[in-house]
Amino acid sequence: MTDTPPSFTKTSWPLGTPDGGGCCAKCPIREGCALAADTYVACPITGSTPPPAPPTRIPAPAPAVDAYEEAPAERRFDVTAIASRGVEAAISGAFGFGWTDLATAVIERSARFDSEGNPVDWGRLQIKRNLLCIAVATAVPIGDHTATVWVADALRTYSVGAVFVPAGMALGFVMPVFVGQFVPAIGGLCRGAIHLGAVITRAAWRLITSRLGWVVTRPAIWAVICGLATATWRFIVYRLTGAV
Questions:
Q1: Is the pTM of this model over 0.85?
Q2: Are 13 and 44 in contact (CB under 8 A)?
């Protein structure tokens, strides 16, 4: 756009032949101004001579990428992400293909927009993966019962103590080993056991915090949730029916 608007014609402003080509000659925004001319002695936009320069912006330095963990996500090759998709496909195949996709489609179509008219992002809930984990927690037997029934029985038998019994068993094993490393006769053996336990703990932590960690954590979480719901349902039914 180089034409001068009718409301800002050159004849509407003081004309002259000042030294240096007028106020527009030293204007810092001359290249992008549609009213720039060498005959102006006053700026037709701001009235000053010349207008103030635009603020200078110093770009912030880009963060250095020095480690593999700091690399952009799209440039990484994460083996656990590929393994995670493979495990999800395997679990889906074990429980029959198609039903999780059908359930996901029904849930996503049930409410496609929220109360404000914005589209609902169902992908964040990972419906298919959670359905598979619920199936694992409620249908896959571990010994005589499923994980859900084990949690429900533990809550019924020990009540709140179901939380502290595993912790007490762990402390009952860890504390003697920790104290035993200071005993001359068995100190080396206990220190080796502690080192082995630390290695196993770090490996387990890396697995749990990786993209493949949901295979361990998600069924356990759903087992606790479903077990609590089962124990509550049993309590209500026993109370209503008078069963012992």
A1: no
A2: yes
